[in-house]
Design brief:
five-stranded parallel sheet; four-stranded antiparallel sheet; 43% helix; Rossmann fold
Amino acid sequence: MKQILIIEDDPEIIKLLEIHLTDLIYSTSKAMDGEVGLNMALENDYDLILLDLTLPTMDGVEICKKLREVKNTPVIMLTAKSEEIDRVLGLEIGADDYITKPFSIRELLARIKAVMRRSDSKKTKEKDLTLISVENLHIDIDKRKVLVDNKRIELSPKEFELLVLMASNPGRNYTRTELLNMIWGYNFEGYEHTVNSHINRLRAKIESDMANPTYILTTWGVGYKFNEDIVI
């Protein structure tokens, strides 16, 4: 049975979510305080976290940042704010999806199913692939650790996911839209510029020469790919 953690301070929303999630045969846990919710998320292995943006003691942004330092549990952020800055913030901190209040319970349940499907697909693909080494680049997927020239490189959650996706499929060309949908999800359509900025930051961290990258190549008119010519 899938385990879902609800971190939300509105008891009515919690009650509504518990009723509908239980009907779908999900097991739920809840926290109405930010720090309590973070501790529960770190101490247990949940299949999904529903995370409110505004919480007592610690907000959803800080919770997501701290969680992403050690875990890749799927997160759907719930918020009453709908400005573009908040939507982009969800992209940057590693949220898998984003829905504003008041929301349709049917839409939220559809989002939950979609995020879980993507998560299960990633786990299946990565199950037999835990270490990737190409020239001076070494990726430990289980430990979420990246080394370049034996030096630890700190990547954001989405930078890491982009690198793992492309390094796991060297030579495959990805359009910006494909990368956006595969890493961030369909709810962020129209934000292809986010892919460009993440690729640029990723290159700045792992490439010795940004003008002539070794690992992540631009496929003109298409998008990006991981350099298959250096893979043994």
